[in-house]
Amino acid sequence: MQKSESSFSKRPLILAQQRTESTFDQIPVINLENATSADPDVRRALADEIRDACINVGFFYVKNHSIAEDTISQATAASKRFFALPQVQKDVLDIHKSSNFKGYTALLGENANPENRGDLHEGFDIGWEARDAGEWTGLREGDGAMSGSNVWPEGLDGFRDTVLEYYHAAVAVGQALFPLFALALDLPEDFFDDKTTKPAAIMRLLYYPPQTGVVDDRVEGIGAHTDYECFTILWQDSVQALQVLNNAGKWVNAVPIPGTLVVNLGDQFARWTNDVFKSTVHRAINRSGVERYSIPLFFGTDYDVKLEALLSCVDEQYPAKYEVVTAGDYVKSRLEATYAHSK
Ligand SMILES: O=C(O)CCC(=O)C(=O)O
Ligand SMILES: [Fe+2]
């Protein structure tokens, strides 16, 4: 059973290391309605809920997240149109041709778990792209391989606008979450403001064909992995496939809940917090018999920001576990490893 919240609410945060004895059977649902309440006590209470989820589970659903249903349904429709294109039209955009990990991933083109044989999904990856004059252009001096523009398919009217509409809405959710994560870490609410000035957010349209017939256990929709950035904001359709590994080694279904998004922590937050915040292993397997679509957006700190353990998360007994790297170098090395098998 999950440990009670009170056992982890003592400061400093390092005491939360006790969470290694805890496990979970359910993923909590958190209501974001009051995320920007004028009352600091209300924001604090919400941050405490988030803190508990981050320490014990590493996953939570959010409801009242502020992305309009229309924006979601149009992005999903655009995604379906893209993956229905003839294979040659998608191959033109192959991510392996890109120096900055943008574009199309074919079936088995990615391998999230090195022990597997390739992931049974198709993907389409984009990064930040401005829509209006005056917005940050996305040109990143010094960001090396992570810089550069998106690639877009020919002949899909409205695709770019629709996908970017969702991208920007999801980035706004992420920008609203960072102050809450800061509060949850007993930091000033604006702690991440100067570290997230150029949204380092990669978004993927994902398509999972159903796995039928004899199932090879080494082929999964996406193999067991942790995410690379601070946190992921995932929209999933109504098809159950996502599973989350608890401390007892049991896969817990992240059951689709209408009107919610799934938020999970990634390895950048594990590094900031010396593993006090959990970057939880997850996978997706679509044995439903029908096609599944999802849209994760991975939100990290700016690529030039150093990932360094917070003082509240380190002491003599728990020294810093990770070497200090920049967010950009870290994400790039993880992406290179993910796509290496199909080069
Ligand atoms: O499609 C999903 O439900 C999960 C996707 C995922 O874990 C990822 O892309 O990192
Ligand atoms: Fe993931």
TrEMBL record:
Q: Which domain of life is it from?
A: Eukaryota
Give any Pfam family that matches: 2OG-FeII_Oxy
- Keyword Isomerase: yes or no? no
Query: Which GO-annotated molecular functions does the record name?
Result: metal ion binding; oxidoreductase activity
Q: Which UniProt keywords apply?
A: Iron, Metal-binding, Oxidoreductase
Q: Which Gene3D superfamilies match?
A: B-lactam Antibiotic, Isopenicillin N Synthase, Chain
What residues does the Fe2OG dioxygenase domain cover? 199-301
The cross-references to InterPro entries, in alphabetical order and at most eight, read: DIOX_N, IPNS-like_FE2OG_OXY, IPNS-like_sf, Iron_ascorbate_oxido_reductase, Oxoglu/Fe-dep_dioxygenase_dom
Instruction: Check the record and name the PANTHER family matching this protein.
Output: 2-OXOGLUTARATE (2OG) AND FE(II)-DEPENDENT OXYGENASE SUPERFAMILY PROTEIN-RELATED
Give the similarity note. Belongs to the iron/ascorbate-dependent oxidoreductase family.
Please give the name of this protein.
Fe2OG dioxygenase domain-containing protein
